[in-house]
Amino acid sequence: MKYSELFTRTSKNIPAEADSANARFLVQGGFVHRETAGVYSYLPLGLRVLRKIEQIIRVEVEMMGGQEILMPVLSPKENWVTTNRWDTFDVLFRLTGVQGKEYALGATHEEIVTPLVGDYIFSYKDLPIKVFQIQNKMRNELRAKSGILRGREFSMKDLYSFHANQEDLDVYYDFVKKSYLKIFKKLGFDSNITYITYASGGAFSKFSHEYQVLSDVGEDQIYVCEKCHVAVNHEILDEQKTCPECNNSNLVSKKGIEVGNIFKLGTKFSDAFGIKYADKDGVLKPVVMGCYGIGPSRIMGTLVEIFNDEKGIIWPKSIAPYQVHIVSIGDVAKDADKLYEKLMSEGIEVLYNDRDGRAGAKLNDADLIGIPLRLVISSRTLEKGSVEWKERSNNDAEEVKLDNVVELVKKYYLK
Ligand code: ATP
Ligand code: MG
Q1: 151 Cβ closer than 6 Å to some ligand 1 atom
Q2: Is the domain of 82 the same as that of 53?
Q3: How many CB atoms lie within 10 A of CB 407?
Q4: The pLDDT of residue 176 is above 90
Q5: Atom 28 (ligand 1): residue with closest C-alpha?
Q6: Neighbours of ion ligand 2 (CB under 5 A)
Q7: CB of residue 156 inside a 6 A radius of ligand 1
Q8: For the whole model, what pTM was predicted?
Q9: Which ligand 1 atom sits closest to the C-alpha of 219?
Q10: For the residues 132-137, what does the mean pLDDT come to?
Q11: Which one of 125, 182, 185, 266 has the fewest CB atoms closer than 10 angstroms to its CB?
Q12: Residue 104 falls within a domain, yes or no?
């Protein structure tokens, strides 16, 4: 992408509402555009990041047996009445359509997915079933906060599983619990700062499990067991004052951002909708369910909270909007264009700042946008047949030969 063609611009002004690093840098860098509190548009750079996050999650969830579907945002009131959540779900957006028909905006999708999948369940042979979607959820959050960390419209991957019995759910749930840690690692969260956190489980199990990433902007207070590398959410601490795994009572208080949450739903929703299957003897039994959420947009914000410095964002390689940021300085368009074409033809994703402008301003933009690798090309480097190579996460720059650049970039991304 030539920066001269990108319609967005970076901004020097810190947004008035910026209460956190992501709220600041994502707006200043032109990744997102704030429409109102908790509501953001994703711009070309930001959408590339969000899509990469979603794609990493999609590939992993498919490997976990998930089949992707897309459910509607408009959700009929009757379904929420059936589950008794129309009046009790605190952040539900409710609206009235033509002829007085009432709807909720999808805040979660048990009310749709249960009767939907139920239409395809007849006997034990049809189970288990796992379906997921990646879609925007709407929640009338009391306080939208911290940029895209707590939105009123936000992206969610929600997976739902349907089983013949509790044992089968338990096995799959444990499998998801482990697999999620792998996903968060792939997304760029070091396992040192990612905690499986015991939280309240609802009617059907003692606990649910949250995935908390340590960060001072986090809204959740968690108590960490440093021996087992698990945590307990503050909200359940009344009942659970020690580590649920080793009984250690010396838990350490930390702030976390909840990036994922998994639940055993049991038969709560299948009972409400009367979803049953015939077992081997033809006896009708209720389907047992689990649900498993991850928030891609919150993850994008969380990555910015963790990977930034005073100049801007430092994207992890796996989800950076582009792999290389070429900055041309001075009158070197011909050579810079050539470098751009060459990298592109090798399948490398390149943002190329070909705009006129002061070197300082262009370098500041590169720091703000945070692409992992910056290549500066100028008459000074060209004299030596080289470009300046600088990694965003590293203060030192070095010169590398133009002839070796492609190979070095590829190697860098394999590391
Ligand atoms: P929270 O406790 O933070 O309000 P939740 O427990 O209500 O979240 P879930 O219903 O478990 O959230 O949703 C699954 C995932 O969706 C969460 O783990 C989080 O990553 C993301 N998520 C939830 N609410 C929001 C929001 N308002 N903005 C952005 N992401 C969100
Ligand atoms: Mg949760």
Answers
A1: yes
A2: yes
A3: 12
A4: yes
A5: 150
A6: 261
A7: yes
A8: 0.97
A9: 3
A10: 98
A11: 125
A12: yes
- Is the CB of 258 inside a 6 Å radius of any atom of ligand 1? yes
Domain of 346, CATH number, reads: 3.40.50.800
Instruction: Give distance in angstroms: CA of 261 to centre of ligand 2.
Output: 5
- Based on the domain organization, do 344 and 195 belong to the same domain? no
Q: Is 293 in the same domain as 403?
A: no
What's the whole-number average pLDDT of the chain? 97
Tell me which residue of 149, 407, 135, 116 sits closest to 289, measured CA to CA: 116
Protein residue with its CA nearest to atom 23 in ligand 1: 295
Mean pLDDT, residues 148-155 taken together? 98
Q: Which residues contact 390 (CB under 8 A, 6 or more apart)?
A: 373, 374, 375, 376, 396, 397, 398
CA 34 vs CA 46, 99, 210: distances in Å: 12, 34, 28
Ligand 1, atom 26: closest residue by C-alpha: 150
CATH of the domain at 37: 3.30.930.10
302 Cβ inside 6 Å of ligand 1:
no
In the prediction, which pLDDT does 263 show?
97
Per the domain annotation, does 402 fall within a domain? yes
**In this prediction, what percent of the chain has a pLDDT beyond 90?**
96
Q: What is the pLDDT of residue 213?
A: 98
Closest C-alpha among 105, 154, 163, 153 to residue 131: 163
- Rounded to whole angstroms, how far apart are CA atoms 124 and 199? 31
Say yes or no: 67 and 126 in one domain.
yes
Residue 203 above 90 pLDDT? no
Give 347-388 pLDDT, tens digit per residue: 999 999 999 999 999 999 999 999 999 999 999 999 999 999
Q: What residues make up the domain containing 169?
A: 3-309
Q: How far is the CA of 150 from the centre of ligand 1 (A)?
A: 8
Q: Find, among 262, 292, 108, 295, the residue nearest to 196 by Cα.
A: 262
Of the three residues 284, 309, 334, the one that is the final residue of a domain is 309
Whether 238 has a pLDDT exceeding 90, the answer reads: no
Question: Does any domain span residue 317?
Answer: no
> Structurally, how many domains does the chain consist of?
2
